[in-house]
Design a protein that fits this description.
The chain has 10 helices and 16 strands. The chain is an alpha/beta fold. The protein has an 8-stranded mixed β-sheet with strand order 1-2-3-7-8-12-14-13. It has a 5-stranded mixed β-sheet with strand order 6-5-4-15-16, with helices on one face. Strand 5, helix 4 and strand 6 (about 125-130) form a beta-alpha-beta unit.
């Protein structure tokens, strides 16, 4: 693997590099990240990998970033504010999880991809890249999907080649992150027909014969319903509190942490405190007043998402 230069651990240098990156260097970074993800099996540092499920030990610090959608300013703010790149502030048991939806609907989608892939290259044992519905398989492609347009704007004729490489990368992003007895992290919603942890870890292999991946990427919680109902998104389902409760009990965890839904305050809590939603970008086309991310101590006991409000940082 061609490693990203050491001095890119400086956030400003990394941001400047993202703005000036050449097509060939971008392609190499994507290819190197694919090779890295392909090899992530068994143990990666303190992480335990099962299919496309990453088990994070329940100790240390966890930073969780929600949807970015090409918002470079919000990403830079979160990295600066969290101090993740600062060795003096980042312990060895420090993890950074992105919930997916890195591009589309934002002018700086290529730059956002460059930075998150560079972070994975710099800190492979500490950074987990999850799959959002905007990184979904061909049959579940989000619309509007303007990532190819933004890549062509930045890289010209090379834009389509870079896009093909990114599509390959999407297939190796994680379906979920599990912190034993505490949290499950997914992009969208509960796979309502899942009965084992393997249904989550291998949802990408069971797609499209089974609906697990579609619901993980596309579904949303709804108040006041039982079971599931068709979603106006055109994919996924609305799911009720009973579905959430059954899912959390099956995994032996307390809280679902997700992205996928804009929120005026950058976060919201659903289903009696069983779900925390994070949305980490601001402005058009969502026009939310705030973005938010989560930074918490994994050793803290947890029973309800209401306890996490003090760890949510809004901007």
């Amino acid at each position: 693997m061609v490693k990203v230069s050491f001095n890119l651990k400086d956030l400003k240098t990394l941001t400047d590099a993202a703005i000036k990156i050449s097509p060939n260097k971008f392609i190499r970074l994507v290819e190197d990240t694919v090779k890295l993800l392909v090899k992530e099996r068994g143990r990666v540092g303190n992480l335990r990998i099962e299919g496309r499920l990453a088990h994070v030990p329940p100790k240390g610090e966890l930073t969780v970033v929600g949807d970015l959608h090409g918002d470079l300013e919000s990403l830079v703010h979160v990295l600066d504010d969290s101090g993740f790149m600062d060795e003096d502030r980042r312990g060895k048991d420090s993890y950074l999880v992105f919930l997916g939806d890195y591009g589309d609907r934002g002018f700086d989608s290529p730059e956002v991809y460059y930075i998150i892939l560079s972070l994975k290259d710099l800190f492979p044992e500490n950074v987990v890249l999850m799959r959002g519905n905007h990184e979904g398989p061909e049959d579940l492609l989000a619309y509007p999907h303007d990532l190819p347009i933004n890549l062509q704007r930045k890289f010209g004729e090379s834009g389509l080649s870079i896009y093909r490489n990114l599509r390959q990368l999407f297939d190796y992003l994680y379906n979920a992150v599990l912190i034993d007895k505490k949290y499950i992290l997914i992009h969208g919603g509960v796979p309502s027909k899942a009965s084992t942890i393997e249904d989550i870890a291998y949802a990408h292999e069971k797609h499209p014969q089974e609906s697990h991946l579609e619901e993980i990427l596309w579904s949303d919680p709804e108040e006041g319903i039982k079971g599931t109902y068709p979603s106006p998104r055109g994919a996924g389902r609305f799911f009720g509190e009973d579905v959430t409760e059954r899912f959390l009990k099956m995994l032996g965890v307390k809280v679902l942490i997700r992205g996928h839904e804009p929120s005026r305050e950058g976060f919201k809590i659903n289903h009696g405190g069983r779900i925390l939603t994070l949305f980490s970008r601001r402005g058009p086309p969502y026009y939310n007043d705030h973005g938010a991310y989560l930074r918490l101590d994994l050793s803290e006991p947890i029973e309800n998402a209401m306890q996490l409000k003090r760890f949510v940082l809004t901007f």
